[in-house]
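Figure 6 in text form: structure in, sequence out.
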């Protein structure tokens, strides 16, 4: 008796779907040349060369053919051919890409080739492909699938080689899971920080300036300033002192830190001045080490916490650039804590708490921590065995004493020390490293950093590198998607928009605008177009509070305010409304977006749908998990999508 569909790993079913896709393509395009067809994280693809080329509108027919093949319950049968015979078969069928792969296998010493054929109930073979598998037993066991795109691809990823087409699909075990994924992808398109960043006038880019170089517009700069201001206040309370360092330095500094040559691929080329080579800095660390070393230090000064929102430039390959998430110029919430060895664990624990404080106030729940250690067999790591063992032990101890769940990643450390990564999952499922914290014994030695201990001896400090809010570019990109562009009041580029019903109430509108600005509320006056259009514009720009000003408001001196998040319209005394705004800002409160539907109110959190539409699958989202399925962080449960907006 054959396996049930649930017994086949989803990766196997996705690989089998790629095989069926190739069969459908060769049916529709006789003479199609097949390249590779693997499974992917959510589905499958096949790279092919056809004449004529496949168009987006052809996907529906290809999908129809795949479903017909699935209904026929064609059996996957594996067989092998001697190498020469297999290559001859591929040449006979004009599969030049497969021939190239087969010849590469022969050069590696392989003596035979693996093939799979699809067999009908009457024993007829319908399709054959060179493949190592594994596959499901029959095409009826694929699951729920859909073709989604056709795009360009290069053979072996080489831009100088043949250009192919990549036909991609998605596949899940059930139709419900497929619908859920499609809904999530639609939500991702709505929340995409690149799309919202343009629509909300937060940032832009220009070919005149270059790829990966973000231009922060006035509205986006407000968010940047609010985050930076918050960090400055918080860090001051935690005992940090601020420094400022230059953007360029002599190359000698990076030879001392050994970023040259080990990090050179991610640095912009040097510039020559006065017979000296200078580099634009890719990180702030060596500059802060230099400040520590500026004068003799005493144990009484430790821990010394140097912090800076430093601008760094890193050369990223143009193909890896992605909105504000992956850029070449970045403002980094950077700091370096210099402390005695017996202070290191407590200081590291404080950094973890600082992350949790920031994330908690921002409503970020989906994250977990990764402890990245070295691989002793890899020669990229510097420092001796004792140094590494001590640094790894201190880092692990701090994380364990903090009571946080974490996973261990071997061979993921920086070249100079172990690190702790905070992996954030956005509301649309995108996961990335938001910040990194490193315990470093190597750089203090390289820079010969010392302090006078209590017994008068000279000792080396431990250096903790930390950046809880990461870079402005990446973190704000995440927040745009997290809040779907509807920022909480304290962070909103524009907090209040005033809308006179007609020009006759313009003076009162100006009076209100001046009043709020005097009280440090970001208020603007919108005039000129019809009231309805101005209201729609305020909604589109996701302004937290909208004030409609007419005769009633002018004569009474009261305020008629509409809350973007709740949809509630309410009258206030002017000072009452001001106090309410100030308290909401002080608390950094996050309001849920609410929609009135069928006589009831339904609220949605920042991680809920951008337009309020429910997910097709009810119930709780899964918790952030590590690779072996263990819960990766206590309480890291995704918010429910609880209703329309």
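Output sequence:
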């Amino acid at each position: 008796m054959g396996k049930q569909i649930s017994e086949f790993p989803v990766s196997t079913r996705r690989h089998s779907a790629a095989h069926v896709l190739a069969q459908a393509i060769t049916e529709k395009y006789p003479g199609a040349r097949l390249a590779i067809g693997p499974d992917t994280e959510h589905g499958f693809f096949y790279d092919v060369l056809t004449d004529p080329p496949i168009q987006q509108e052809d996907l529906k027919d290809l999908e129809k053919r795949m479903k017909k093949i699935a209904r026929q319950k064609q059996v996957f049968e594996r067989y092998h051919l001697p190498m020469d015979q297999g290559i001859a078969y591929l040449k006979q069928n004009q599969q030049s890409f497969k021939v190239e792969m087969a010849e590469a296998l022969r050069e590696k010493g392989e003596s035979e080739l693996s093939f799979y054929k699809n067999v009908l109930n009457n024993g007829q073979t319908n399709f054959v492909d060179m493949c190592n598998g594994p596959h499901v037993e029959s095409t009826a066991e694929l699951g729920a699938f859909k073709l989604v795109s056709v795009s360009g691809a290069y053979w072996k990823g080489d831009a100088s080689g043949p250009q192919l087409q990549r036909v991609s699909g998605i596949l899940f075990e059930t139709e419900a899971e497929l619908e859920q994924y499609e809904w999530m992808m639609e939500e991702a398109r709505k929340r995409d920080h690149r799309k919202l960043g343009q629509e909300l006038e937060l940032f832009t880019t220009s070919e005149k300036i270059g790829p990966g170089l973000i231009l922060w517009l006035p509205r986006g700069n407000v968010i940047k300033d609010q985050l930076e201001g918050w960090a400055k206040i918080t860090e001051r309370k935690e005992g940090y002192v601020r420094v400022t360092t230059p953007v360029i330095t002599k190359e000698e500094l990076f030879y001392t830190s050994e970023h040259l040559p080990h990090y050179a691929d991610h640095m912009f080329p040097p510039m020559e001045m006065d017979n000296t080579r200078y580099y634009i800095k890719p990180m702030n660390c060596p500059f802060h080490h230099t400040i520590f070393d500026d004068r003799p230090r005493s144990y009484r000064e430790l821990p010394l916490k140097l912090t800076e929102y430093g601008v760094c430039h890193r050369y990223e390959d143009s193909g890896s650039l992605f909105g504000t998430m992956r850029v070449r110029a970045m403002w980094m919430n950077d700091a370096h804590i210099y402390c005695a060895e017996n202070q290191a664990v407590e200081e590291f624990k404080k950094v973890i708490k600082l992350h949790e404080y920031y994330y908690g106030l921002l409503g970020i729940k989906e994250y977990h921590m990764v402890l990245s250690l070295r691989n002793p067999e890899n020669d990229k790591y510097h420092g001796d065995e004792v140094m590494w063992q001590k640094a790894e032990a201190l880092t692990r101890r701090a994380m364990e004493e903090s009571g946080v769940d974490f996973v261990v990643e071997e061979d993921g450390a920086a070249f100079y020390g172990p690190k702790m990564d905070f992996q954030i999952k956005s509301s649309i499922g995108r996961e990335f490293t938001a910040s990194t914290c490193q315990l470093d014994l190597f750089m203090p030695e390289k820079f010969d950093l010392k302090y006078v201990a209590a017994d008068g001896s000279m000792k080396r400090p431990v250096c903790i590198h930390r950046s809880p809010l990461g870079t402005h570019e990446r973190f704000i990109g995440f927040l745009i998607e997290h809040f779907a562009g509807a920022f909480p009041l304290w962070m909103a580029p524009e907090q209040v928009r005033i809308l006179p019903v007609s020009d006759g109430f313009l003076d009162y509108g100006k009076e209100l605008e001046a009043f709020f600005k005097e009280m440090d509320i970001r208020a603007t006056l919108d005039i000129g177009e019809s009231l309805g259009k101005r209201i729609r514009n305020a909604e589109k720009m996701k302004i937290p509070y909208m004030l409609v000003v007419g005769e009633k408001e002018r004569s009474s001196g009261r305020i008629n305010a509409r809350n973007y998040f709740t949809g509630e319209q309410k009258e206030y005394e002017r000072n009452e409304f001001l106090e309410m705004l100030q308290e909401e800002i002080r608390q950094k409160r996050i309001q849920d977006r609410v929609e009135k539907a069928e006589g009831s109110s339904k609220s949605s959190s920042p991680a809920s749908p951008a337009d309020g539409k429910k997910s097709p699958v009810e119930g709780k989202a899964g918790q952030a998990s590590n690779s072996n399925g263990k819960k990766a962080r206590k309480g890291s449960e995704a918010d429910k999508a609880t209703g329309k907006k």
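Caption detail: Residues 1-5, 596-604, 617-645 have pLDDT under 50 and may be disordered.
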